[in-house]
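Dig into these lines:

——
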Amino acid sequence: MEYGVWLDFPNNKPENNERCLIRREGYGQIWELAVYNEDSECWDDGEGDDYLCDLNDVDKFMLVPKI
């Protein structure tokens, strides 16, 4: 997958523990940094420490390049 491209979720999925910019469905235009947690079937906060939201709350995501 390319960086800087918005992808539909769940049609596309990032790799487990991959940092992404997400858009949470039902919350308007709220974009947040999150970590995809396939093991726990959720999105964790931007640090990958704590639960942020359910998988189905997200409708789009963009991969964040590793620095």
Summary: DSSP finds no helices and six strands in the chain. The longest strand covers residues 31-37. The mean pLDDT is 92.
